[in-house]
Design goal:
Blueprint lengths: L1 H26 L5 E10 L3 E12 L2 E4 L4 E8 L2 E9 L5 E5 L14 E7 L8 E7 L2 E10 L2 E10 L4 E2 L4 E6 L6 E2 L5 E2 L5 E6 L4 E2 L4 E10 L3 E9 L3 E2 L20 H30 L1
Parallel strand pairs: 1-18, 16-19
Antiparallel strand pairs: 1-2, 2-3, 2-6, 4-5, 4-7, 7-8, 9-10, 10-11, 10-15, 12-13, 12-14, 12-17, 17-18
């Protein structure tokens, strides 16, 4: 009888441990991540990947911060490590390809890069592949009949051939959002060229404009950007009153009349207190 009770107790204990471990395992179920990566080439400046890591949790899309990422190249069934990156608080990371010339394209001229996430305590592992060819945009500023034009030509860098019937955007660089010229995009002709008139009177610091010719998120070439500086803008007049004594200036630049009024009120109030104090002393002595 005693052995039977001990056996039942042991079975109950084992069952309880299995149940608790099962509930714990369900509570710690890992979530699948979503990786997105876009290739960007700023001509004569840099090549980089814009990477975003997110996850779907309770029907909401959340950014995955501090995700450790591995970037590698796939070439002839061989995986070559390029570098690592880490997402910020918004789940975004910019990975600059320091030595792009060290990468090798396949026989069709495509580069194949892989962005991998090895997983964590909360998220499953995941990866995404980015494939692209290299394109080149040549651009120059020309003036015809007192009108300024940007002429640009898009070519495939490997084939050295024009890329026709592809939308290019011409815009002016701004701090928050670029200013697009005329319309959203211009289609390249059979020679891969576009010509866009630049309106007069666009403001710029010292009259300088940063013109950009952009191929946006193309399936073959990714995003390609050519920056062209031009002294054709309307000079911005500095109307800042930061160093002047105005009502909205910093504390150290308070208007003189306001300081005088404030200190005058202070002297008057304290003068009254001093006057009353001496009168109380006289009354007390008398």
């Amino acid at each position: 009888m005693k052995k039977s009770i001990q056996f039942r107790s042991l079975v109950f204990l084992l069952f309880s441990l299995l149940l608790v471990s099962g509930v714990k395992g369900q509570g710690e179920k890992k979530v699948r991540v979503r990786l997105n990566a876009d290739y960007v080439h700023v001509i004569d400046h840099e090549h980089y990947l814009n990477i975003k890591v997110s996850a779907r949790v309770n029907r909401e899309t959340l950014e995955v911060s501090d995700a450790e990422l591995l970037i590698s190249q796939e070439l002839e069934d061989e995986e070559i490590e390029i570098g690592t990156a880490k997402t910020n608080s918004r789940g975004i990371s910019k990975f600059v390809i320091e030595d792009f010339n060290a990468l090798k394209p396949d026989e069709d001229g495509f580069y194949h890069l892989t962005v991998s996430f090895s997983g964590s305590d909360s998220f499953k592992r995941g990866s995404t592949e980015v494939s692209f060819r290299v394109a080149d945009i040549s651009a120059e500023l020309v003036t015809k009949d007192s009108v300024n034009y940007v002429t640009a030509r898009l070519t495939d860098a490997r084939l050295d051939s024009a890329v026709a019937k592809v939308p290019l955007t011409v815009q002016v660089e701004r701090l928050f959002r670029p200013l697009k010229i005329e319309k959203d995009f211009f289609m390249t002709d059979d020679d891969g060229e576009v010509e866009v008139a630049i309106p007069h009177g666009i403001p710029g610091v010292d009259g300088k404009l940063q013109l950009e010719v952009v191929l946006n998120e193309n399936d073959n070439y990714g995003t390609v950007k050519r920056i062209l500086e031009a002294q054709i803008g309307k000079p911005i007049q500095d109307e800042s009153t930061f160093d002047q004594r105005t009502m909205w200036s910093p504390r150290g630049k308070t208007p003189t009349f306001l300081l005088a009024v404030t200190y005058s009120f202070g002297f008057v109030v304290w003068g009254i207190f001093v006057y009353l104090f001496f009168n109380l002393i006289k009354i007390y002595k008398s």
